[in-house]
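Format notes (please read before filing issues)

Several people have asked whether sequences and structure tokens are stored in separate files. They are not. Every record keeps both together, in the order shown below: the sequence lines, then the token lines. Line labels are part of the format and must not be stripped during preprocessing.
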Amino acid sequence: MKQSATMIRIAIHESDHSRRRSLMDEVLNILKSQHITGVSVLRGIAGLSARGVIHAADMIHFDVDLPLAIEFYTSPDEAEIAIAALLPIVPRGHVVSWDVTMYE
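Then the structure lines:
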């Protein structure tokens, strides 16, 4: 059986902060309060910032500001509600979504 869903990805860095805590924690708490499940946080081994700075985890450059991708999928209606709650705290242009097919 197939069902339509929306995949959401939030791109941030480990050092990004919200009002009171890390931005990652703030995003996860917002999603938890909306009963979104199946959320994954992926830590990149390298990334290129908007300023052109390379952030990488290697033996020469141990960087604690690596890129993070927070991903989840949900129904299109719930996705719109979640995105609206995230936009005030996530940097502009760092939330993307696309339509996916969920197989049951």
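For reference, the curators noted about this record: The mean pLDDT is 90. Strands lie at 2-13, 40-43, 46-48, 54-56, 67-74, 95-103.
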